[in-house]
Amino acid sequence: MTSNEPAAHDAVVLAGGGARRLGGADKPGVRVGGRALLDRVLGACADARTTVVVADPRPTARPVRWAREDPPGAGPVAALDAGLRHTAADDVLVLSADLPFLAADTVRRLLTALRAGAAEGVLLTDADGRDQPLVAAYRTAALRRELAVLTAGEGGLTGLPLRRLTAGLDLTRVPDPVASFDCDTWDDIAAARARIREHDHVLDEWISAVKDELGIDLDVDTGALLDLARDAAHGVARPAAPLTTFLVGYAAAQAGGGPEAVAEAARKAAALALRWAEEAEQEKAEQGLTEQGQTEQGQTEQQAEQRKAGRPGGSGPDAG
Question: Which 3-state string (H, E, C) describes 173-218?
């Protein structure tokens, strides 16, 4: 690792709870915005060197390592201990699998805060100011230390609440009522589904879902592509918008992919759409001048005929 590369971190995602308030439903598999809750969380922590999901294995959008607490259902502390056994990085994200609004930038913020200070963990607090220890970044050694203390003192980890673990840690808290929102009830699920369809969120949510579905990990200038689609629709024809953006993506892939390739293809297509629109405006203007000239010529000829008709010997109404 060079000095310019970020320090490696691992992630442990707890996804094996009983979901009693959801009537025993498969909570990690419940879809919000077309994606399973677990896949949404895995997308947010995609930069982790190793991601361990503590649950029975299932299909996921990203490759992960699976672990299970012994016995299954022994609780979050036992599950965390099982997950940590598969990690090696100095820092570890600890996340629940029911966070519909967790994003990569929040994960980076947690890790940055952890590395910038002396605390043993950085966790989010919710809208009511309550600690959310399953939306957090910790120093792995500190977690292992406290797990060893609990194991020795309690004779095991089964059934212990997370607060028993975090009570022995030096923690920094970061308020974030959105990223810390978790889905414990069907009302929570309904609220999450409604929020992502709001005007301010729906486009980003849709793009993120499509990228996950297609296996694309690419950040591009969405505004530039929308401007291109608008220019193509207005300057050429409405169907030109989706077709043009498709061709831009194809051209970028042919050029090796990446944000730079997309930006260059979009720039060329946008310039073409502008030239196309300018030609159309020029043609309109020229057509207007031609029609104006024809009108003026017709008026001149009509006036000449009228003057001719008024001369002696002419064919006007008074002649003959």
Answer: EEECCCCCCCCCCHHHHHHHHHHHCCHHHHHHHHHHHHHHHHCCCC
Q: What is the pLDDT of residues 2-13, one digit of tens each?
A: 445 568 999 999
Report if pTM > 0.70: yes
Q: Do 75 and 138 touch, CB atoms closer than 8 A?
A: no
Q: CA-CA distance, 259 to 265, in Å (whole number)?
A: 10
**Given this model, what pLDDT does residue 196 score?**
86
Residues 6+ apart with CB under 8 A from 31: 37
148-151: long-range contacts (C-beta < 8 A, 24 or more apart)? 150/77, 151/81
Tell me: the pLDDT tens digits for 250-266?
888 888 888 888 888 88
Q: What is the pLDDT of residue 307?
A: 62
